[in-house]
Amino acid sequence: MPDNALPDIKIPPALLPGDGRFGSGPSKVRQAAFSSLMAAARGPLGTSHRQKPVKSLVGRLRSGLGTLFNLPEGYEVVLGNGGATAFWDIATFCLIEKQSQHLSFGEFSSKFAAAAQAAPWLSDPDILASPPGTHPQPIARKDVDFYALTHNETSTGVMMEIHRPDGAGTGALVAVDATSAAAGLAVDPSQFDVYYFAPQKGFGSDGGLWVALMSPAAVARVAHIKESGRFVPAFLDLSIALDNSRLDQTYNTPAVTTLLLAVNQLEWILENGGLSFSTGRCDRSAENLYGWAESTGYASPFVEKPDERSHVVGTIDFSPSVDAATVAKILRANGVVDTEPYRKLGRNQLRIAMFPAIEPSDIEALTACIDHVVSALA
Ligand SMILES: *Cc1c(COP(=O)(O)O)cnc(C)c1O
Fold first, then answer.
1. Is the pTM of this model over 0.85?
2. Which of 69, 139, 230, 310 is deepest in the core (most CB within 10 A)?
3. Do 157 and 240 belong to one domain?
4. Residues 178 and 254 in one domain
5. Tell me, what's the pLDDT at 4?
6. What are phi and psi of 60, to 5 degrees?
7. 368 assigned to some structural domain
8. Where in the sequence is the domain holding 340, given as residue range(s)?
9. How far is the CA of 149 from the centre of ligand 1 (A)?
10. 146 close to ligand 1 (CB < 6 Angstrom)
11. What is the pLDDT of residues 80-118, one digit of tens each?
C-alpha cells in the first residue's frame, strides 16, 4: 500500500508509550544517557583518546563489565572498532585454529558461518542449521576447536541458553555472539570463552564498537595462533587489541560518544542491582508482550517453544486478516517506530525490542496501541 493511501488513524495520546522506540538496533538510548553527553562536552568529548579522561572512560567500561558479568579471575575485557561484524573476521583470523562449528538459525549466525567458510586458511566449518523460529543444538566433534553460538538471534527472536557442548574437548573454545543478548539475558561465564557484542542494543549506546569478554583459554589461543606465523591484518589482530585494552585504549580512535553512552547504561544497570535488574526488566517486558499475543485472537508468538521465545527481541505473527506492515506504518506515523519485522524473514509479523532501556510498561502501552490500530482498521 503506498503511504498516501495509509489510513489516517490517530492513536489517543493516553495510549502512547512514554518512548516510542522499539527497534532492535540501533535501539532506544535513555534520556539520562543522552544528557550525560552534555556534561561530557566539557569533559572527555573532543579530547585525546591517549589521555586520562578517555582512558578512564574505557577503564570504567572494562571494570564495570567485569563486575556486571561476574567474570572469573583471569578473564579479560577487550574492545576495538568495527562492531560485532568485524569481530567475526577477527575470530576467523585470531581465534579459530582450524575448524569451527556454527549454529546457524538466522541472519546473524549465518553471516559468521559464511565468514568462516570464506577464510581459505581454515577448514570448511561444520554448520548446523535449523529453520527460522528454532535453534539447533551444538554437537561435540573431535576436529572442532571453536564452537560459535548465538545467545539471541535478533533476526528471528529466538534465544538459547549458553552451555558448553556436552563432550567438547577441553581445548575447544566456546564463543558467543551476544550482540542483542548482553545485559538482557542471564549467562554463566564459566560456560563461554568469548562473549562478544556491540553496544547499540542492550547497552543502549551507538554502533561501531565491539567488546569481548575473554577467558584465559581464549587469550592463550590468540597468542598461540600469533606465534604460528599466520598473517593477521593489524586492524583485526586480537593480540594488538588485547595489548591496547590492557592500557584502557583502543588500537585506533574510538567514538567517544559511543563509549560515554555505553558507560552510562552500564553504570545505571550496576547502580540498580546489576544483571538481575536488567534481565528482570526484559523478563517483565516479555511477559507483557507474549502474554498479550497469546490472549489476542489475531496475534501469536512466532517462536513455538516458550523457553526459546526471546526476552530481548519479540517476534509476533499476525493472522492473514491483519496486515502487519500496515500496522507498523500507522504506528510509525504516530511516533512508535521500528516495529517492522526483519526484512528477509518475509513474514506477516512485527518485531519488538525489549532491551533493558525499554520500560516494561511501554511494552504494555505498545500492545494497547496495536489493539487500537487493528480495531480501527477493521
Ligand atoms: C546487530 C547484530 C550483529 C551486528 O552488529 P554490528 O555492530 O552491526 O556489526 C551481530 N550479531 C547479532 C546477534 C546482532 O544482533
1. yes
2. 310
3. yes
4. yes
5. 65
6. -65, -35
7. yes
8. 19-29+273-377
9. 13
10. no
11. 999 999 999 999 999 999 999 999 999 999 999 999 999
